[in-house]
Amino acid sequence: MCARIVSAIEAGGAISFQRYMEMALYEPGLGYYVNGLHRFGASGDFVTAPEQGRLFAQALARKLAPVIDSLDADWTLMELGPGSGALARELIVHLECPPARYLLLEPSAALRQVQQAELATLPKELAARFEWLDQPPEKAFSGAIIANEVIDALPVERFRIAAGDVKSMTVDVDPASGRLVWVEGPASDRLRRAVRHVCQDLPEALPEGYTSEICVDLPDWLQTVTAAMACGMALMIDYGYPRREYYHAQRSDGTLVCHYRHRAHFDPFVWPGLTDLSAFVDFTTVAEAARTWGLDVAGFTTQAGFLLESGVHNAIESTADDRKRLRLAGEFKRLVLPGEMGDKFKLMTLVRNLDPALGEFEFADQLHRL
Ligand SMILES: C[S@@+](CC[C@H](N)C(=O)[O-])C[C@H]1O[C@@H](n2cnc3c(N)ncnc32)[C@H](O)[C@@H]1O
Known about the structure:
alpha/beta
């Protein structure tokens, strides 16, 4: 992986961080998500909400139930970046009216194999409803879209404010040590425009030296993945903040985070291809893009707010088996406590040709913070 990155730099000079992240995560055969070495859960690098147990899928099934009631019986569910397939496995059994088609949009052939093995364990009648896609479908459907921890894996640009201008933090090779290093370079017009757009919304100008990330492809990506949903609800779940919090003056070194075997660190040049790279999501950008593409932003809350509202915890107390009750209580705590996943993770509901009330969150709605 390092040799491939170095030869890309030698061929054309320093590369943008977006290009670096794209290579480190998706370079054919070598990138983190495509090299077949990636493991989910306890034996991997990080644990996502669906990997914790069933509660997250149960809560999503409850949120989707009234949406499904207002759709045709042959509704479609599309999951983006399904990882190990854990969410798909639980969701399809917890939905009272399972989708006629469960589409899995997965760019990684290696992960697709993992998902196929996982979902083959379901009863045949349910397993037959899964279809894998390389591209979002062209044919219109009515249904729902779920993306859990997918936006944070989209490659981002890294920028710095220098002499009042926007600079691009690019990746080069240090001739003395041969190591990958950051080098400040001119920003493309696209990057400069995107940063200036964000800055218009902030209470004060970003200070000199301020460094952060921005996902310039996010609006186009959202359009691509939601275009075929003629009627329905998309649920975007990820770690992130509203824009003013994301680009807060005190968050002066961005949100880039790397995971290797359950350790988080902040140096993206360590073991590319073996380390997960991600950046927090600016949910205000998601909301703006959604409105541009004809979606209503119906709800925005924290993962804790969503799970508490769903009521999935009510059954924990009455679970007779002590071990099971303790396991469920532990799972619920990891999902909702502020120091764990509860506050950092947010849910945004986007609806098209559907009553926006179906996407609202009654408990702890934070739409006003976007
Ligand atoms: C952090 S994992 C999350 C996996 C899973 N959703 C979960 O919650 O456990 C990111 C997933 O997104 C996929 N992915 C990355 N870029 C994508 C894209 N542009 N469209 C759809 N999926 C993508 C990855 O291959 C991987 O399956």
